[in-house]
Specification:
Layout: E1 3-7, H1 12-24, E2 29-34, H2 42-46, E3 50-52, H3 58-67, E4 72-75, H4 81-86, H5 88-109, E5 112-114, E6 117-118, H6 142-161, E7 165-166, E8 168-170, E9 172-174, H7 187-197, E10 201-203, E11 211-215, H8 216-228, E12 240-241, E13 245-247, H9 249-259, E14 265-267, H10 271-279, H11 287-293, H12 301-316
Parallel strand pairs: 1-2, 1-4, 2-3, 4-5, 5-7, 6-8, 8-12, 9-11, 10-14
Antiparallel strand pairs: 11-13
Helix pairs in contact: 1-8, 3-5, 5-6, 7-9, 7-12, 9-12
Bound molecules: 2-amino-3-ketobutyric acid (AKB).
Residues 80-81, 118-120, 170-172, 180, 183-185 line the site of 2-amino-3-ketobutyric acid.
Length: 317
């Protein structure tokens, strides 16, 4: 990995991945791809090149790959689960037609491609606890449909054309840098902002609803480690189950109250997000990622909570 294009570089993962890659690849080029209206600013703009990179515009993407001799594409352009339910056709266009553009460019120009999947690729008929790597995937959301199709199409381009596609199934990602937009797991980020600001938090997910989660530093390591893994050791490619913790709203609330005893949470359940959450696994089995490329997260709920509260206190207060 030397010359990298991050598509969706101003989003929740992209904003931090772009800066991490720029620090980790000295002498390489990390291009921040963005769409008009979400231009990179500050250190993102100043620390490397940026280009308008709309996944739905194949010619524009191909020109960037040529201009910077890109060898690896992080394809992070996507609508998250709750928004994708409101705009299913747009989700299909970005997540499927956009992916096809990227895979075709990668085939022609010899790039490796990472396109994240999600716990959303599972559905109500998947085993709910310790969901295996290889199991039933019949999601009921447009987000999930596009994630399963992304996995299949990425594997197809690998077996048929030899395109080096690899990816992980991310759980809910928790970060103190860029807010997620329109996901089902967003509550696990919002709750920290409310606690640090001293506000009461109104939780859209019911008590007792468990989902897998991960702190962003671990997610960034997953993005990089999977692309740098020895290909001979990979039995799977698209996509690996990865997780770091599983909790419900009561458990994260209790973890925050240990540090902020005055914090208060109430429930105001959002039926759309709740239905999505109930169709997803409670917990994933990520043993294939651990054995095939050494996945091993650093943060648990307690250490993440300490770090989130400390970083957000500096940022917000
Ligand atoms: C979402 O909630 O949509 C995402 C995800 C788990 O894929 N955070």
């Amino acid at each position: 990995m030397k010359n990298v294009l991050v598509v969706g570089s101003t989003g929740q993962i992209g904003s931090e991945l772009t800066m991490t890659l720029r620090r980790q690849i000295p002498g390489g080029t990390v291009v921040a791809g963005y769409i008009p209206g979400s231009e990179p600013k500050g250190e993102w703009l100043e620390s490397g090149p940026s280009e308008i990179a709309n996944v739905c515009d194949a010619a524009q993407m191909a020109a960037i790959v040529d201009k910077y001799k890109i060898d690896t594409i992080y394809n992070l352009a996507a609508l998250l689960s709750a928004v994708a339910e409101k705009k299913p056709l747009l989700a299909w266009d970005i997540q499927m037609n956009g992916l096809l553009n990227i895979l075709e460019i990668a085939r022609e120009k010899g790039c490796a491609v990472f396109t994240p999947s999600s716990i959303g690729c599972f559905g109500p008929s998947s085993p709910k606890k310790n969901t295996p790597q290889d199991t039933i995937q019949r999601p009921k959301t447009m987000y999930g449909v596009t994630k399963v199709a992304t996995e299949l199409l990425s594997d197809y381009y690998y077996t048929k054309f030899g395109v080096d596609t690899r990816s992980v199934r991310f759980p809910g990602l928790i970060s103190n840098v860029t807010l997620p937009g329109g996901g089902t797991t967003d509550y696990a980020v919002e709750i920290y902002y409310a606690a640090v600001k001293g506000e009461e938090y109104s939780c859209p997910i019911k008590a007792g609803t468990f989902m897998d989660m991960m702190y962003m530093p671990d997610a960034l390591r997953a993005c990089i480690d999977i692309m740098e893994a020895d290909p001979d050791k990979l039995v799977h490619r698209n996509s690996f189950n990865v997780t770091a913790m599983s909790f419900d709203p009561e458990i994260i609330y209790a973890a925050i109250k240990e540090l902020r005893p005055e914090f208060k949470m109430v429930y105001n359940v959002d039926p759309v997000r709740q239905a999505i959450a109930e169709s997803w696994p409670d917990s994933l089995d990520d043993s294939c990622a651990r054995s095939e490329w050494g996945w091993n997260p650093s943060y648990d709920l307690k250490s993440m909570t300490v770090d989130m509260i400390e970083k957000l206190s500096k940022k917000l207060l």
